[in-house]
Each structure stands twice: as structure tokens, then as C-alpha cells.
Design a protein that fits this description.
alpha+beta, SH3 type barrels, five-stranded antiparallel β-sheet
Length: 90
């Protein structure tokens, strides 16, 4: 078997890896980066939805946790990473 034939055997594997990178890995990394930017940009008064589906208003923030207001007298502390998305104000 010559060297050219050996390279042709690995060519489909290389193409498969490149396709997997562009279809799966790259978009997932981009989404993680956007989520991290959103978490870093959170401020008091932002409306958020937690990963559990709880909606609330950001009342206090620190490096690791976030306090959201659920009702008038109900506040809950969550891990900052539990914020799924920020609700756009209308």
C-alpha cells in the first residue's frame, strides 16, 4: 500500500471531524459565550427567566448569586448561572 492510498483511507474521517466541528462544536461554543456575556451584563431592575422557568426582577447581584423578586414581598436567591435568559423590556 502506498502513502497516497493510506491518506485516502483517513480522508473520510478528517471530513467527518471538520463537519462535526462546524455543525456541533462551534455553534455550542458561540452560544455559551453569548450566555456568559448576558450573565456579565445583568443589572438591577432587569427582568429574567431562570432555568427552572421562574420569572422575576433582579434586585441584587454579586459574583456568584442573584436575588430576584418574585412577588411584592417574595425574594429568592439563585445561583447566577441559573439565569436562562433576560426578558426584553417593551
Amino acid at each position: 500500500m502506498d502513502q497516497n492510498a493510506a491518506m485516502m483511507q483517513f480522508f473520510p474521517l478528517i471530513v467527518l471531524f471538520v463537519l462535526m466541528y462546524f455543525i456541533v462544536i462551534r455553534p455550542q461554543k458561540k452560544q455559551q459565550l453569548e450566555h456568559q456575556k448576558m450573565l456579565d451584563a445583568l443589572a438591577k431592575g432587569d427582568k429574567v427567566v431562570m432555568s427552572s422557568g421562574v420569572h422575576g426582577l433582579v434586585m441584587d447581584l454579586d459574583k456568584e448569586t442573584i436575588v430576584i423578586r418574585l412577588e411584592d414581598n417574595v425574594r429568592a436567591r439563585f445561583d447566577r448561572a441559573a439565569v436562562a435568559r433576560k426578558v426584553k423590556s417593551e
